Amino acid sequence: xxxxxxxxxxxxxxxxxxxxxxxxxxxxxxxxxxxxxxxxxxxxxxxxxxxxxxxxxxxxxxxxxxxxxxxxxxxxxxxxxxxxxxxxxxxxxxxxxxxxxxxxxxxxxxxxxxxxxxxxxxxxxxxxxxxxxxxxxxxxxxxxxxxxxxxxxxxxxxxxxxxxxxxxxxxxxxxxxxxxxxxxxx
Length: 186
Prior knowledge:
Blueprint: H1 3-8, H2 18-40, H3 43-59, H4 69-109, H5 115-134, H6 138-148, H7 154-161, H8 165-184
Helix pairs in contact: 2-3, 2-4, 3-4, 5-8, 6-8
């Protein structure tokens, strides 16, 4: 089968014929990789997922005669991408749970009678919080410090800065999120 023959009979090819399978791969692989990349946002992962789909087709090629492989491959790639994204979400949740558990274990194992150990942990937490605050954009850092260090109310921050209530709250939320992320890395 030639490339012209393949385009003429695009939907159905002889799956048992290795040359046809090779031609199918050469023809569809670039499009399938671009299709997968739209889902996973990573070119290398997209290529791996597409390769897995072609391997599955190749392994089952004898039982696929008369089937539209074009449509089947796009469906398989989409499903592989969705499964990959689902797996990625589960892994991320597991990592966050593990971080939370480690932090709880660290607190559980602290000998609160030993001031030196408590001091080291306090210093580490304070340094992490300060690092997070220092990395904030200038306006967000200013609003957060007014709120937490100067203990100003949101209304007072609004009056001093000329910001709306929404903007003040937004800056405080951004700062809190940055601090939480920084502490999660401990």
